[in-house]
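Rotation project, supervised by the postdoc (A.L.). Task for the rotation student: set up a whole-complex structure prediction and record inputs and outputs verbatim in this book. Inputs entered:
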Amino acid sequence: MIKLVTILALFICSLVSAQTQYEQGMTKALGLWNEGKVSESTALFERIALVEKDNWLPNYYIALMNSTAAFGVKDKDKMMAMIDKAQTALDVETLKNPNNPELMVVQALINTVWIVFDPMTNGQKYSPKTMELYQKALAIAPENPRVIASKAEFEIGAAAFWGKDTKLMCNEIKRAIPLFENEKLETPFSPKWGLDRAQELLKNCK
Amino acid sequence: MKTIVSFLMLLISIFTFAQTTISGKIVDAKNKPIANANVFIDGTYDGSNSNEMGEFYFETTTTANQTLTVSALTYESIKIAIIIEKYQKQSIVLKSNATELNEVLITAGTIESGGKSRVSVLKPLDILTTAGNPGDIVSAFKTLPGTQIVGESGKLFVRGGEANETQTFIDGVRVAQPYLQTTNNVPTRSTFSPLLFKGTTFSTGGYSAEYGEALSSVLIMNTIDEPDLEKTDIGLMSVGASIGNTKKWKANSLSLNTSYINLKPYQSLLPDNIKWIKPYQSIGGESVFRHRFDRGMLKFYTSYTASNLDVKQDNINYPDQLHLANKNNNLYSNVSYKGGFGNNWNLFAGLSYGNSLNTGLFDIYNFSSTENASNIKLKLSKPISVKVKTNFGVDYLYSNFSETVNNYNSGFNSNILAAFSETDFLFSKNLIAKAGFRFSKNYLLKENSIAPRLALAYKIAKNQQFSLAYGTFGQAPKQDYLKYAKNLQFEKAQHYILSYEYNNDKQIFKAEAYYKSYDNLVKYDTQTPLYNSNYTNNGSGYAKGVELFWRDNKNIRNLEYWVSYSYINTQRDYANFPKTATPSFVADHTLSIVSKYWIPKWRSQIGGTYTFSSGRPFNNPNETAFMNGKTQTYNNLSVNWAYLISPQKILFFSVTNIAGIKNVYGYNYSNTKDSNGIFQSQAIVPTADRFFFVGFFWTLSKDKKTNQLENM
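Outputs recorded:
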């Protein structure tokens, strides 16, 4: 009897500790990102991704972190290395999950990095692709605040260039804010970023 | 009690684990530390990054046999079997992964456009936004080093070679008739719309063994793999109209575009130097169908153009003007498949068919000609290891040409079978060699040949490299000769190329020196090649030169520009030359400056292209020395302006030769002396001093963001 209890207890313990390991790892990796240690955080996410093969989040964070960090990097080789890292990680998950709107948002971000880096060359090439992605993402997840806000931000950029009114986009951002606030996370590590940025954007909407 | 204790112990041990420290140092082959390497135990989260000193340190709860994995950007990952309890601090050496970013590339003689290649010199957009070439793929390449400005022809003349010494390929397969047929001194255009192509490789010498039947140069164009989105393009131009459409569904996509060009309204408004009976008009279209397989891509490309013109030219030998008329139907179609199979094998298979039908009038002679040409190519490639890659294949070229001039028939049937093989050796991250050969059997000429090719590239610093290329190249004599004479041999050339390249963030500098020798060039003994001329392979020649290229998109915001300069020294004894001389299509010095300036406030791109070339030789029969004349220098400044009315509507203006400089390409002399004992001359000039172009382009797509800026 005691043997049985021991085995049972052992089993439960290992389950508990396995989960803790994932949670600890993710928490630590996200913490490193917060501290601005992108390469350390990327390395840890990579290790997690290798173990958690059925979980799209580690690769998602690698892609998200490296693409956001690549914004404004002036050195082409450095920028390319980051984008490469982001794209490689994202491709792994997009292949498994082509209709995941969160992954689409990150792909759109990567495209935007290319556009910002060299608008004359890449604007024509990536703008339509990016718009197509956002539209597809919005059709799949019409209430996803990150899709709504990122799409609106991208459109505001274009509208500024054409001297067009940004009212429609601002309304979209307004719509996204309560969606951000009431967002129910599927798992503790599901994407939840974007509220700050949306509020920032809204300040410029008048 | 005992069991409870042991149970507790067990629990505690699970929570605390036995922690073992794993540490060491990561270095490269030269014992230099590698920072930011990811070191970890396979299948666990246990690991860390190496620091600036290459040192790493982490704790693991695993035990016994484990695999330690080390990965770092630009290095080959390594897996080491360890026993945790016995692990000792150690140095781990990573081999550099030569195929990663910044690898050394063979670039001698090569100019690339598009693609993500680091050596890309032109961007796809450049083909369209370069002032002076209204959307003609070939003319954008004429602003690059190695090419000659031969305004009366419109074709590519490379490094002292004639236009027929350049072969064109689409998706790997030969295009036998890349140009539209025109007539005497009326420049031609290529038959392809830049809309459908992504990357283009233009090689001015020393190219791969995969390509044959080209003495001087190859132009390799690839159609777009997957269009970005569905759209309809409408263009209204001062010289015609165009419409295009792209559809996508599942793994398939189809692009169609068609255009109608008629110069009549323009000619009536702004008459040029030619008396047109029927100004140039053409109708044409292209289509690309693509299907994506799991491991491959099938493409089906077709283009068709029908054009005609009828003109009376002033000609010194025809007091009543020379009457020329021409109708041309040009069909080209190719199917290609590219894909992987088995263990890392890559297969390419392609088949092309071209038909060109030409009928017309030259003075009082009616002519008609037909050419049917086909190319079948099969190529296999496989990386044997990270350092060695090999490819081999077969190439079959068929051509049937027949011509009738006032009931006199001539023609030929040509079959060429070739086999090629090439291997890349990556000796180190900084040194690569490519060696190969091409064997070719020409059934018409009853001749076999073997052409070796060799290329080397050595990277001397992060952004700088040297390349060397050598090769022998053979080509059957051109149609004009082959239709009358079959007892000829291959014409031959040897290329020696040395090139230096500096490539930094948005800046490229390239310097190239070359020497080229020609042998077995065809000679004949009459004024023009005739059925009864004596043809021999006794000609020869050489070309040598230095070329410079500089492109900068960095220093001035919103400005992109490039400068090309070519110096050439070439002489040949060929065709009907009485002695060795520089041919009339060669100018010693050629300079091009191309710039594009983007003005965000005006939503406009303004472009300018200036081209200069020194005088070209011509033969003056009044002088005893052959080819002793030199034309004046050639100068041309062309400008264009693209204005974005809205995200989907563009207005485009361009003026070719804005200053209206009277350029002279050469001189025609009368065949007989006049009463004063002098051969009278006539200058060969452009069909118009200036050319104006206005276009309105409108794109209809779901996202309302795309436009046709790329079309111009």
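Student's summary: The longest helix of chain A spans residues 2-34.
Supervisor addendum: Chain A touches chain B at residues 2, 5-6, 9-10, 13-14, 17, 21, 24-25, 39-40, 43-44, 46-48, 50-51, 75-77, 80-81, 84-85, 118, 120-121, 124-125, 127-129, 131-132, 135, 158, 161-162 (CB under 8 Å).
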